[in-house]
Design a protein that fits this description.
Arc Repressor Mutant, subunit A, 47% helix, mainly alpha
Length: 125
């Protein structure tokens, strides 16, 4: 069986995950999953400075995850695809499939899946 690894595609996926690798950006994506918002609305909802929200939105936009459209003197931001929200929910289920009271390092023991750092490549270092 021959494996075909598309490094260009893997690079694009890595850029996507790098853009999402910041909790504030994940929170922004969750807010935008509910519909389009202006920076001021997002700032108020998340308790972050507008400049911080704008910087995070620029990263998400640069990764192609968020679209911006002028709305009068403001800009309206929305998710570029609904699949992004699905990806985040899948990640949450992977980390916490049983609910918020479960330790993610202990789930799926029967399947061999573990988030225990000692079991990660490199020993979690």
């Amino acid at each position: 069986m021959t494996m075909n690894y598309d490094l260009h595609q893997h690079d694009a996926v890595a850029r996507l995950f790098r853009a999402l690798a910041e909790p504030a950006r994940l929170s922004l994506v969750h807010c935008l999953a509910d519909g389009p918002h202006r920076v001021g609305e997002l700032s108020s909802h998340l308790g972050l400075a507008q400049s911080t929200v704008s910087a995070h939105l620029a990263v998400l936009k640069g990764a192609g995850l968020v679209e911006a459209t002028p709305d009068g003197r403001a800009t309206l931001y929305r998710l570029a695809t609904s699949e992004l929200d699905e990806l985040l929910h899948a990640g949450e289920r992977l980390i916490d499939p049983q609910g918020p009271d479960q330790d993610p390092r202990n789930h799926h023991a029967e399947s061999g899946i573990s988030l225990d750092p000692a079991r990660l490549p490199g020993g979690g270092r």
